[in-house]
Design brief:
The chain is of the alpha+beta class. Among the domains are: 94 residues, Sandwich (Maltose phosphorylase, domain 3); 89 residues, no CATH class. Helix content is 35%, strand content 17%. The strands form three sheets. Strands 3, 10, 16, 17, 18, 19, 20, 21, 22, 23 and 24 form an eleven-stranded mixed β-sheet that branches. Helix 7 packs parallel to helix 9, helix 11 runs antiparallel to helix 12 and helix 11 runs parallel beside helix 13. The longest helix has 23 residues. The protein is globular. It starts with 27 loop residues before the first strand and ends with a strand.
Length: 646
């Protein structure tokens, strides 16, 4: 029972403790352990990850030598280091995922296994706190980018990236179990970084961002302000030291970066940390920069499914309105990072538009990365697979046979396996994103069947249950199981798509932007409501058993891109609710790029299987399925964007 003794005092490992005090986030995420999903799509995905992906990822970390590298660094294994210099991070991310699993459903076997891994990590750590298995094992020669000595090639070594993920795992484990052994490892390492860099004022720029936001989490868990100061210092070092390159977002000071450039995963990790600093230090320059960066991404560089990073070269952002469908990248890790960044933007503002982007990215680009059984993964998330795509892939794999890049089908593991481990930690943390609290009420951000029991910002207890078939259907039933004593505003997000706006910018628009207004009933009586910042506000004295019913109309909608997105000219896409749809053809069929549809075509929706609604263009006999279902059963041609005929 040790894991429960302090859970209600701490927020979940991923969700920030948004206290609402000056100089902090205004809105607070509900702790992970306070919410349970049951019976919906996200609950099913969480169950698959917990039962299949988690043990599979641990097994792969064992089979590929990732875990053995810690034993080698500890002197417990005399064999040669195997793998890549950043493989430590995969172990840490799976450990973070396991901690979320422990926080929700205690498993003594998993708990014991985690204890054994933590002991191994502790043994691999050098006496002064340094932790980088490729160096400590004496095998830096196997990867010259590791550098000849500590910190000598920090722009390429991933030394700080690795331990950043370790901090995140350590904080997650501490919150889940109350044990401090893993947290102590993280603190020793962070103390070393502080004494090595901030204390003497030694400039340093990590080549792969992650350490910055991880230090903020460590600060929140420990209260040690040195870690927050170090995070800020590392951000402030950018734009003047190391290689001056857009690829690693080191071309300007962070407060002067208004356009999203470079490696997309690195970028969103940086933007997460900038949001943290904007909140915790009340830094207006940071806030201005991240607002501009968000507008640039959502207004000019985000694909319809929420994916970011248009260029395979460098896994990077493209130019404004460069949004190709087949010749694109959209790494799964970038989608996960985008969700985490948008969550922080919500915590700053309480605006529903950030959760609109979160939701679009989650249900489309993120879930697309995972197979039904949780053991196959997409690294890249393209929006079209044509015969040309297969030819391109064969040529690519001929040149790079070990590459994880598969555009046509998921793979079981990758040489660089950041995406499977990122999916595991993110999906298991999803319940913590469902609700939030602020001084102006309780926020309902995600619609998923389940139960939440938590405290309002005023310290009153509240319990909410949700019953819904969302996102397949638009009926959501919320029951106030335990009401607070005082009046409270229940703020229910009204998705932008339900109001005729696919995204909170002009990048994409519906062919018909009219929409049937969402309907809300309280205890069976239809009620009017005011919409504030994308939320329907129901402010009243609640009582136990009160029922709120939200009905969202889910017609088939046709989407067009901004005309400046020339790669999508003359085409449209199909959506229903939060889902982007795609159509597919057998490999032996005609080229999928020859298909045409019209916005005047008649579409019929039907439940193909529980929770999966297919759409059929009856005029042309073309079936569409939610994009995330692509290639779940077999390789096919696939396209989201279809040529439009009039």
């Amino acid at each position: 029972m040790h894991r429960f003794f302090h859970l209600m005092l701490l927020s979940s490992a991923l969700i920030l403790s948004c206290t609402g005090k000056e100089g902090d986030y205004t809105y607070k995420g509900v702790p992970l352990e306070s919410v349970r999903f049951s019976g919906g799509l996200l609950a099913e995905r969480g169950k698959v990850v917990r039962e299949n992906t988690l043990p599979f990822a641990f097994r792969k970390c064992e089979e590929t030598g990732r875990i053995a590298n810690f034993a080698r660094a500890a002197g417990l294994d005399s064999s040669e280091f195997t793998g890549l210099r950043y493989d430590d991070s995969d172990v840490y991310k799976v450990m973070e995922a396991a901690s979320y699993a422990l926080a929700c459903d205690y498993d003594p076997v998993l708990d014991h296994y985690m204890d054994s891994l933590i002991a191994l990590v502790a043994a691999a750590q050098e006496p002064d706190g340094y932790l980088y298995t490729i160096r400590t094992s004496g095998c830096v020669h196997v990867d010259e980018k590791a550098g000849s000595e500590r910190w000598s090639n920090i722009f390429h070594s991933h030394e700080l990236y690795n331990v950043g993920h370790m901090y995140e795992a350590a904080v997650a484990h501490y919150h889940a179990t109350g044990k401090t052994d893993f947290l102590d490892i993280a603190k020793r390492n962070a103390d070393l970084l502080y004494d090595t860099f901030l204390k003497p004022g030694r400039k340093i720029v990590s080549g792969h961002e992650e350490i910055e936001t991880a230090l903020v989490r460590l600060y929140r868990a420990t209260g040690d302000k040195r870690y927050l100061d170090l995070a800020y210092y590392l951000l402030e070092c950018r734009g003047g030291d190391g290689e001056i390159t857009t690829y690693r977002q080191n071309h300007k000071k962070v407060t002067e970066q208004y356009e999203a450039v470079g490696h997309a995963v690195r970028a969103v990790y940086l933007y997460m940390a900038m949001a943290d600093i904007a909140a915790l230090r009340g830094d207006a320059a940071y806030r201005t920069a991240i607002d501009s960066l968000w507008n640039d991404v959502v207004g000019r560089k985000m694909h319809l499914h929420g994916g970011i990073g248009s260029h395979l070269s460098g896994e990077s952002f493209g130019e404004a309105w460069y949004l190709p469908d087949s010749d694109t990248h959209c790494e799964t890790c970038a989608s996960v990072g985008s969700c985490m960044w948008n969550y922080r933007m919500f915590c700053l503002t309480g605006e529903g538009r950030y959760f609109d982007v979160f939701e679009r990215t989650l249900y489309n680009s993120v879930l697309h990365g995972l197979s039904d059984d949780g053991m196959l993964f997409f690294y890249a998330n393209v929006l079209q697979c044509s015969p040309e795509t297969y030819e391109w892939q064969r040529e690519w794999l001929r040149k790079k046979p070990s590459s994880g890049l598969r555009r046509t089908h998921r793979r079981a593991w990758f040489e660089t396996s950041c995406c499977p481990t990122n999916l595991a930690r993110f999906i298991l943390s999803l319940p913590s994103y469902a609700y939030a609290t602020g001084c102006d009420g309780v926020y309902v951000n995600l619609f998923e069947s389940g139960h939440g029991a938590f405290e309002t910002a005023g310290g009153e207890k509240i319990e909410l249950s949700c019953k819904t078939s969302y996102p397949a259907e638009g009926a959501v039933r919320l029951t106030v199981e335990k009401a607070p004593r005082k009046s409270m505003a229940l703020r229910i997000r009204i998705p932008g798509w339900a109001c005729g706006h696919p995204v909170p910018s002009g990048l994409y628009s519906y062919s018909d932007d009219s929409a049937i207004p969402p309907e809300i009933k309280v205890n069976g009586v239809k009620c009017g409501y005011e919409t504030v910042k994308g939320y329907a506000v129901l402010d009243r004295k609640w009582k136990d058993g009160d029922v709120v019913e939200l009905t969202l109309d889910m017609p088939v909608r046709f989407v067009r891109a901004d005309p400046r997105a020339e790669t999508l000219a003359g085409r449209c896409a199909v959506e229903r609710g939060p889902f982007v749809y795609c159509t597919s053809l057998p490999l032996s069929a005609k080229d999928i790029r020859s298909l045409e549809i019209s916005v005047s075509d008649n579409f019929v929706a039907r439940e193909k299987s529980p929770g999966i609604v297919s759409l059929t263009d009856t005029d042309r006999n073309i079936e569409f399925l939610p994009y995330y279902r692509h290639a779940q059963e077999r390789e096919t041609q696939m396209s989201v964007w279809i040529y439009e005929t009039h």
